[in-house]
Amino acid sequence: MNNNAKFCATEEQLSKLNAVIEESKSVPGCLMHILQEAQGIFGYLPIEVQTIIAEKLNVSLSEVYGVVTFYSQFSLQPKGKYRISMCLGTACYVKGADKVLEEIEKQLGIKCGECTPDGLFSVDSCRCVGACGLAPVMMINDDVYGKLTPDMIKGILDKYREVK
Amino acid sequence: MTIQQLDAIRQAKKELIEVRRAVKEQGEKLAKKTGYRKQVLVCGGTGCTSSNSIKVIEQLEKSLKENGIDDILIVKTGCFGLCALGPIMIVYPEGAFYSQMTPDHVKTVVEKHLVKGGEIVKELLYQGTITQNGDIIPFAETAFYKKQMRIALRNCGVIAPEDIDEAIAAGDYAALEKVLTTMTPDDVINEMLASGLRGRGGAGFPTGRKWMFTKASESDVKYVCCNADEGDPGAFMDRSILEGDPHCVFEAMAIAGYTIGAKQGYIYVRAEYPVAVNRLNIALKQAREYGLLGKNILGTGFDFDIELRLGAGAFVCGEETALLRSIEGHRGEPRPRPPFPAVKGLFGKPTLLNNVETWANINPIIMNGAAWFANIGTKTSSGTKVFALGGKITNVGLVEVPMGTTLREIVEEIGGGIPDGKKFKAAQTGGPSGGCIPAECIDVPIDYDSLIAIGSMMGSGGMIILDEDSCMVDISKFYLEFTAEESCGKCTPCRIGTRRLLQLLTKITKGQGTNEDLDKIEELCNHMKSSSLCALGQSAPNPVLSTLHYFRDEYVDHIEKKECKAGVCKALLSYSIEADKCKGCTLCMRNCPVGAITGTVKQPHVIDKDKCIKCGVCMSKCKFGAIVKK
Asked: Considering only CB atoms, which chain A residues are within 8 Å of B430?
């Protein structure tokens, strides 16, 4: 997946987005909610999506962009099919999460915050998923992997590579 | 719903809940009245579901069916506290505590224990519940639990949070009933003031006064908010309460709404907590269906409803004015106070904002009285505090202790000490805003004022234990990386100060620091404390200042000797092979990614320090412990 790939949305995605905007338009402070839903629909928030939201809500694009870039949950770049999120919270950090992250980066040949060229994996760090008892922890999409050591990484990634 | 209906629900499931709280003999008597021979509680909190507790529940249902057992109740609860041992399963009335369950273990327990006339499967029990002479003790009497006092967590791990009937039977909404039927708003405020409850989010502001100020503000519309944006890395107290007993938060917010004159509440919760968000949504739906939220609650004419708002990953949104901005849908930037939210808060209206754990204390204060609560803990810090114990400690998990409990009791007794025979070095409390408590202060009582006196702070309750393998310079650098990343950028002292501090600390961990850097660090810290706009910037220097105070020699070692005694700071490390231990197996040589190791078979090998990239692979591969890092 090329990060500069042109954004193209399906009719279905666009109508879903419109429905979300129409439904929550009148709720005070709805922008965050709409952005969260939009990211769920498109996987990320390209400028085209932000423009649609700004126009429909009758606010400036700069305001929407300001909110999108303020919160770490929102992404301007597309993510991989499998989103790896390595916890670098304190409990994980003191138990060696940095070494696990290094191993992930080495295995995938990308740095934290990037996406593999085939679009299969993207790696991000996060601060605490709240499963500190299992530190160090990472999430791949919604699956949680705990008590990790660097030598477990290859096996876990291979499992996803096989499914594709 | 009427008060009579509420009471009927309470009575119907009362004994069912009591079995889970009773001591063994009483429990057995009570169990007979419930219609269930046994109850099996399985933890469905984030910690245990991450280690597959859902599969444990599925297997349990299947195995019970296969064995024709239909008089056992399965309950999916919130967090029990001992997250490292998950998935956890407790069988009542005997209180048998099984840990680290797998579907296979479940089969064994069903066949040997849960069948009629079965016996506890000792091998699968949590080891802490077996005494030295082989007797089984109930979970409540283990070292982990005995010193704890569960007030905020009273229902966590006891009830099924997705079943409002269980919550009601366990006592939720009884305080709301009492307040709406027998107390005036002023009565409630007097109770809060007399209880001495202080905000559990970190700052420790007296809760009663906050309520009083918001009530005193004149306005047609007011709001009640719950701060569930638990951003402190390593802290999961609030998440466990939301997952284990969501109704206690709704109830307390409704009580506050009645007291200050608000009809609408908001819960601002992190989107990173999917389990908690899901439970909150289920609980909200049930509370509305029962009429415990909405119009004319319990027929008293009082209206109150709650909406959820999801955060999107910004630490600064834990600050009250930033949180309110975020609920309004803007960038979560703080603003100067005054005006305080009690005067001008959400959408410009007077707003009462409390943290999840503070809300969880309201019901017991109303039900048992302010005097009861004020008697627990210390004079200036009443009640209990929940801590998320993590890091280098045997019992990682959630603990609730009376204020004034010493750090030693938490670490050595409840926490079970440091694993692998290592030495306790320090406890980090308050996360990126707090500081370190060194080993020499291990007998300090944990309460708001004692912690501030030694340069740390209570914070929201994250407590990370560090052992001799932790480098204090690295730890403060870790927190500065965090605050530098999370600084919202609005005010200069925080935006630039955190960056500069991080640069200076990085320089020291690379062995390039000078003694003048330490002076610069201290000066910069003091500027940031005095001139940052919000608590994020004001408290960001705390981890640095407290480690510099208690562990200055470590900073000096990094600077003068270019040495990191804990062996963490990579730039200062070197790996070498001890010739007498090396068997010449060549394993390290074959695994070294840069070919820095040379040697012949059965002869001691050597590491070329110029080529070595200090990745540590050789050390993890060596079977003879011949490789050392210094």
From this structure: none
Q: Out of B314, B396, B616, name the one closest to residue A132 (CB).
A: B396
pLDDT of res. B84: 82
For B45, which residue in chain A has the nearest alpha carbon?
A: A131
Q: Are residues B199 and B293 in the same domain?
A: yes
Of A33, A93, A134, Cβ closest to residue B478: A93
In this structure, is residue B151 part of a structural domain? no
**Inside any domain, residue B56:** yes
Domain limits for position B554: 473-561
The HSE-up count of residue B482 (CA atoms within 13 Å, CB side) is 32
Each residue's pLDDT tens digit, A104-138:
999 999 999 889 999 899 999 887 777 888 889 99
Q: pTM surpassing 0.80?
A: yes
Helix, strand and coil in chain B, % to nearest 5: 45, 15, 40
What token pair was written down for A146? 């705990």
Q: Do B464 and A67 touch (CB under 8 A)?
A: no
- What tokens does B217 get? 């503000």
| B541 and B439 inside one domain | no
Tens digit of pLDDT for each residue in A18-69?
999 999 999 999 999 999 999 999 989 999 999 999 999 999 999 999 999 9
**CA pair distance B129, B338, nearest whole angstrom:** 53
| Nearest CA distance, B51 vs chain A (angstrom) | 7
Residue of B nearest to A85 (CA): B272
Q: What is the CATH number of the domain that holds B502?
A: 1.20.1440.230
Q: What is the pLDDT of residue B273?
A: 87
Percent above pLDDT 90 for chain B: 82
Full DSSP string of A26-84: TSTT-HHHHHHHHHHHHSS--HHHHHHHHHHHT--HHHHHHHHHHSTT--SS---SEEE
Domain boundary at B435, B470, B505, which? B470
Q: With contact defined as beta carbons under 8 Å apart, do B599 and B605 qualify?
A: yes
Could you tell me which chain A residue has the CA closest to the CA of B308? A33
**What single DSSP character describes residue B286?**
H
Regarding whether B182 and B63 lie in a shared domain, the answer is no
Residue B291 has pLDDT above 80, yes or no: yes
Question: How many Å lie between the alpha carbon of A164 and the closest alpha carbon of chain B?
Answer: 23
Domain check: are B72 and B107 in the same one? yes
Note whether A134 contacts B326, CB cutoff 8 Å: no
Nearest CA in chain A to B485: A72
CATH of A82-163, one of 3.40.30.10, 2.60.120.200, 3.40.50.970, 3.40.50.11740: 3.40.30.10
DSSP 3-state percent helix, strand, coil across chain A (nearest 5): 50, 10, 40
Q: Which residues on B lie below 8 Å from A126 (Cβ)?
A: 272, 313
B93 and B58 both lie in a single domain: yes
pLDDT digits 0-9 by tens, B565-587: 998 998 898 888 999 999 999 99
B220 with B328, same domain: the answer is yes
Q: What are the boundaries of each domain within chain A? A: 11-70, 82-163
pLDDT in tens, B167-203: 999 999 999 999 999 999 999 999 999 999 999 988 8
Same domain, B125 and B23: yes
| B460 band by pLDDT with thresholds 50, 70 and 90 | confident
- Check residue A5 and give its pLDDT: 55
Domain with B31 in it: what CATH number? 3.40.30.10
Averaged pLDDT score across all residues of chain B? 94
